[in-house]
Write a structure and sequence with these properties.
By secondary structure, the protein is α+β, with helices and mostly antiparallel strands. Helices cover 15% and strands 49% of the residues. It has an eight-stranded antiparallel beta sheet with strand order 1-2-3-4-8-7-6-5. The longest helix has 12 residues. The two termini are 27 Å apart.
Length: 133
């Protein structure tokens, strides 16, 4: 999300995402914000992890399944072709796309089961720059 950067403290993250709450009492480092817009695209929820010392560590966006094609097309346009894989069994199927931009590791997941269908994008700081390989 524009304006967010790794290591930001909670108050600066809230300035960008709006009000957020800890996920629960046991995961005090994990927060969730609802009704966020990514440009003009609605995000059902944003979950993010903060370390007391190192600030923002990861982000995960949940989108409506109908927005999946637009989000994936935007990621491909910006970062190129991803590494992708899929798995399927009788009860569920998963498709996974991964980009390493050098700064970020971006993972997109489409999960489908009898009970639910979800589309998530997660970001965390990359630990490996592609040019070092």
């Amino acid at each position: 999300m524009e304006g967010l950067s790794w290591g930001m403290p909670l108050e600066q993250v809230r300035d960008h995402l709006g009000p957020s709450q800890p996920v629960d009492d046991e995961q005090t480092h994990r927060f969730v914000a609802s009704n966020v817009l990514l440009d003009r695209l609605p995000v059902s929820s944003v979950t993010f992890d903060l370390d007391e010392t190192h600030g923002l560590q990861s982000l995960a966006y949940e989108f409506a399944i109908d927005d999946m094609s637009e989000v994936l097309a935007g990621l491909r346009a910006r970062h190129g072709q991803p590494l992708s894989t899929s798995s399927e069994d009788q009860d569920q199927s998963d498709q996974v796309w991964v980009w390493n931009t050098g700064e970020d590791l971006i993972t997109a997941v489409k999960h489908r089961s009898a009970e639910q269908e979800k589309f998530l994008i997660s970001y965390r700081q990359s630990r490996l720059r592609p040019e070092t390989l």
